[in-house]
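Technical annex, item 7. During the second reporting period the consortium partners agreed on a shared format for inverse folding records so that results from different sites could be compared directly. Each record opens with the tokenized structure and is followed by the designed sequence. A conforming record, contributed by the partner at site C, is shown below for reference.
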């Protein structure tokens, strides 16, 4: 049944969003752990990882903020309000709306898809190719707006592992230098402690990078689906307001008036 299928799609989207939120929360759990038996806390983790833990923690905060922003901005109800799209398409196909009234309705709605539809309605009565070009241009501008901040997620997923690796290399160098200076070559526990501290930055970098990569993939897919739906509705506008159809409607109305007068 169509209703069951739509409800399944909504449930699937909710599950994906929940998983993403859980991963984002998990990425920040490193910074918010309660003191453990060994005294592990936020300050001890930062101090163990060194200065490079600061930009990694900053990337984690940025990731959470912009993930929430994109999740709110890319809601389907905001980009493509179903009642508005259904009403204006039905009225255009039935010939109930004129150019000025249809354009006014789109401008008053102010949703992203309304701006795309308004671009096509502005070419009312023009050849189908010209109307379609206006729709495509407006769709490309909308796509650029919807893809805002997606490069940020990709950048975080690329940079944070490198920062973690750099922190590990620096920590290893410092650890070996300390052993050489103190003459503790026969004490492997000191070397193990230094390596353990050095690996903290790598773990932290991966903890932030993995959710960032997932967020980039998820939101990119979300944008592509929204743009495909916008394009489908745009093609319906092309068929409804192109010059070929407008002329057919005029001829039909003229024929009906002539028949009515003759009767």
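Designed sequence (site C submission):
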């Amino acid at each position: 049944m169509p209703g069951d299928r739509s409800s399944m799609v909504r449930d699937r989207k909710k599950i994906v969003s929940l998983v993403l939120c859980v991963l984002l929360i998990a990425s920040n759990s490193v910074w918010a752990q309660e003191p453990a038996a060994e005294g592990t806390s936020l300050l001890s983790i930062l101090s163990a990882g060194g200065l490079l833990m600061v930009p990694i923690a900053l990337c984690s905060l940025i990731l959470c903020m912009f993930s929430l922003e994109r999740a709110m901005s890319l809601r389907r109800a905001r980009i493509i309000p179903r009642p508005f799209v259904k009403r204006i398409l039905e009225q255009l196909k039935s010939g109930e709306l004129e150019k000025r009234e249809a354009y006014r309705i789109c401008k008053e709605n102010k949703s992203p898809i309304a701006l795309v539809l308004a671009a096509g309605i502005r070419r009312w009565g023009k050849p189908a190719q010209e109307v379609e070009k206006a729709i495509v241009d407006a769709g490309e501008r909308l796509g650029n707006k919807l893809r805002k901040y997606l490069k940020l997620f990709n950048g975080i997923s690329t940079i944070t592992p490198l920062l973690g690796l750099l922190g590990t290399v620096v920590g290893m160098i410092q650890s070996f230098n300390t052993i050489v200076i103190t003459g503790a070559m026969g004490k492997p526990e000191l070397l193990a402690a230094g390596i353990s501290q050095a690996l903290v930055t790598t773990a932290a970098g991966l903890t932030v990078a993995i959710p960032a990569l997932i967020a980039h993939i998820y939101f990119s897919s979300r944008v592509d689906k929204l743009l495909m739906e916008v394009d489908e509705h745009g093609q319906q506008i092309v068929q409804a307001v192109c010059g070929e159809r407008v002329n057919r409607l005029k001829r039909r109305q003229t024929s009906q008036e002539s028949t009515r007068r003759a009767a």
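The chain has a mean pLDDT of 79. The chain has one domain: 1-263. All partners now use this format for quarterly exchanges.
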